[in-house]
Amino acid sequence: MPSPRSPLSRLFTVLLAGALAGLVLAVAALPGGLLGGQVAKAALGAYAELPDALRTPAQPQRSYLYANDGKTLITTFYDVNRTDVPLAEIAPVMRQAIVSAEDRRFYSHGGADLRGIARALVANLRGGGTEQGGSTLTMQYVRNVLKTDPTRTAEERQAATEQTVGRKIQEIRYAAALEKTLSKDEILNRYLNIAYFGSGAYGVAAAGQRYFGKAPADLTLGEAALLAGLVQSPDEYSPIDGDKARALERRAYVLDAMAETGAISAAQAAAAKAEKLTLHPTAQPNGCTAVAQGHADWGFFCAYLRQWWLTQPAFGNTVKEREQALRRGGYTVVTSLDPKVQQTAQQQATGVYGYDNKRALPIAAVEPGTGRVLAMAVNRHYSLDENPAGQANHPNTVNPLISGGDSVDGYQAGSTFKLFTMLAALEAGKPLSTGFDAPSKLPTRYAAEGEGTCDGKWCPANANPAWMDGYRMMWDGFGRSVNTYFVWLAEQVGPAKAVEMAQRLGIRFRAESDAAFAKDDAENWGAFTLGVAATTPLDLANAYATVAAEGTYCTPLPVVSVTAANGAKVAVGQPSCKKVLDTDVARAATDAARCPVGQQSAYGQCNGGTATSVDRIVGRPVAGKTGSSEQNATETFVGFTPQVAVAGIAANPDDSTDLVGSPVQAKVIDAVARVIKTAVGGQPVKDFTAPSRELAGDPQRPKPQPTPRPHQPRQEQDRGLPSDLLRWLQNRRG
């Protein structure tokens, strides 16, 4: 039953009928030639007044995020579920259905169908049925644009649907102006891309997906007729959210109209009417918590991309404008996420710790020379779902455990920070052959109190004296992770140089205590070389990627390309890189970094490593470094080839006092190595370039080398700090 009209609605109809009837009669009384001239003149005048939105539509559209293959959908972002498609990609029956249902004289009128207006006026005055507005497709398009234009104020958008004679006359003038400047097919295409079809779907592309899981080119006659029938009252007729029976009635009406106009035969109409309504409702994902089914781990990368997007001036002057651009701008974003690398990283992270484990293994993979982020994995579901009682961030969380930010400062990465001291020393002119007779304990110049000090001075120690003590150079000092050698080396160049080097390579100090040390007391931060500052797998991987790229630092980048709705490329997909290290310095550091992973330096100076299994797993030139923080609270490994750098840190993100323990170090090493293997799979084998003889120096060893104790696995040799320094560090860090 049609809904009864209110007295006010009927009164408005009568008033509007009178006004428009007068307009119709006045226009009809004009001589034909004069009529054409006046309409043309009025149309041109109206075109000069057209809002920009009608000249160049700026309608909200959904943005798509794809993996680096440009095909694998990660998710979409939208306020309005809408995507433009060209007319050629819309089934002909869909075009015919909408014209037959809404504006049979579309191809013959000039924007305002005076006959249609008069017919609607008569029908409305008679009452007893649904009110008719007599609006053409062009007039409906004008109304839809003005009421949804994101550049207009809320008041202006509301005014586009006001029930006033002035608004209707303006709508007619705008429609006539558009008809003078756009082809009928262009107007039809624009209409089909903006019309609301109910259930949150704007435009025929979104509607085809929402109701039938189809592209608009694949719609059948019956499906097209059903969609065309929805636009008159989309919320009421929607077969998903409204009345399925009414939707079928409207489908039948459209099919009959198509037969009457000759678009289809009566037999075709009857056959389509007899078809059972078969829906395949498809909800488009919206945002990072709605990533592709079965890939909840992609949400962490998605969130990182979104944070990056909000910093890019290309998408707006403010964060709010950039957020609006992502959700309404219709961008196609090809991200840097590599599905294969991501899958391996996720498998490895969850293989070490399950989703329900309070401990985590966040892993990041970065491409040297571009900074493109290939994978971000952790044993957590990216989800807002509640966790069981007592479980803060597992199995569900949206915290940036891999990239840092918000409340996540990062995790201590232990001896991986020795790289920054080595680079600072090499840059200062000290060659790889710089030797020192490393003792078990080393009294330093840094004042300290309490247990583990030597005459009031900080006194770091080697975790395994039998394997670490003795005459060391940078090669085996790095390979065996000799604490006293690197603390001594840091004293030679100054800890501030190592701190500055870390910052130069992209290490950010998110913890307040670390930032304070770096800013105010870096020269006295003796323990920095042993990795007491918090960092993240992404920062660490990118720092080592800088060395892999022979000294070229690239800002981490989560995209390959961004294309606007109009097909134009946005200038944000190119790497932002700069030279921060001398090439030979980077090559020298890489040569020493061959030692920890069980490979040999170009000068044959590796004699033991803390991660020798990596050579066997990766099976090509590789370098890297392990790191164990105080009392094995965290265990870290970062490895790299010329084509990829990967870092993983085992930690408890919610409780730094929960010690992951030394046994997990071998698993972390194995996990990172297997991610590297996947990342370089199918790529040509590339070797590292040897450093110059000048920076290698003269590797003379005046003393015989101690051998490792056979009962202690090499993967467990690396200890960032001995336990007797815990109290001093706690006091020192405040």
Automatic annotation (TrEMBL):
The keyword Transferase applies. Residues 684-734 are annotated as: Disordered. Residues 73-258 form the Glycosyl transferase family domain. Keywords: Carboxypeptidase, Glycosyltransferase, Hydrolase, Multifunctional enzyme, Protease, Transferase. It holds the Pfam family Transpeptidase. The keyword Nuclease does not apply. It catalyses: Preferential cleavage: (Ac)2-L-Lys-D-Ala-|-D-Ala. Also transpeptidation of peptidyl-alanyl moieties that are N-acyl substituents of D-alanine; [GlcNAc-(1->4)-Mur2Ac(oyl-L-Ala-gamma-D-Glu-L-Lys-D-Ala-D-Ala)](n)-di-trans,octa-cis-undecaprenyl diphosphate + beta-D-GlcNAc-(1->4)-Mur2Ac(oyl-L-Ala-gamma-D-Glu-L-Lys-D-Ala-D-Ala)-di-trans,octa-cis-undecaprenyl diphosphate = [GlcNAc-(1->4)-Mur2Ac(oyl-L-Ala-gamma-D-Glu-L-Lys-D-Ala-D-Ala)](n+1)-di-trans,octa-cis-undecaprenyl diphosphate + di-trans,octa-cis-undecaprenyl diphosphate + H(+). Residues 364-654 form the Penicillin-binding protein transpeptidase domain. This is Transglycosylase domain-containing protein. It comes from Micromonospora sicca.
